[in-house]
Amino acid sequence: MFFVIQPNGIGSAHDAMNTDYRSLILIAGEKLRLVPFDVSFAESLFEAIEESQAELIEWSTWYHKGYSFDGCRSWLESREQARFERRSFDFAITDATTGDFVGGCSLHRIRARLGQLSFWIRSSLHGEDGADAVRALADFGLSRLRLIRIEIVIAERNFSDQSVAEKIGATREARLRNRLIIQDEIHHAYLFALFGSGEKPQEASDPRWVKVAV
Description:
- By secondary structure, the protein is an alpha+beta fold.
- It has helices spanning 13-19, 42-51, 53-59, 69-77, 79-84, 131-144, 159-167; strands at 2-5, 25-28, 32-36, 89-95, 101-111, 114-121, 149-155, 171-182, 185-195, 209-212.
- It has one domain: Aminopeptidase, CATH 3.40.630.30.
- Helix 2 (42-51) crosses helix 4.
């Protein structure tokens, strides 16, 4: 399960998602929070990316040599429009106590109630696998966005991310040949999936807090 915090205490979680996405914070266990990405994260995000180059260049399809601060900022600036069009919901994973940047996770390529989930954790925090954050985002997609299927595609040799997918209860459906291109190298991958019923969730009586059980 996850909790949705609405700092302004106005309206339902569904209303907040549509009108003030920046106020929507997901609680992921005791240690992590998911905060919607915006340009205020530019410096902390780019710092974490620079720190994590070795891992990102090995397993990420979006990172490339020469990735710049301007490119990072431009991506952050585009997140509100992507959310408004319901194409992508992108969150910073932060430390619940300090607010420090931990990593990122996204629900993207959303269409026809289907979506893809991706995530990464900065290199200095290898002890934190991010499973609670990934689970909270998946719950948000299935319960609040009413997705009926969320897919996670992970490179065949990326065992740590496969472990996270298994921890959150994702089903390993298939081995996909030539599924990913990472730094011009072709990779086989595993397809994991999570499933939702598509039923409309009941709104909580207290608009400041919403608890969704899955």
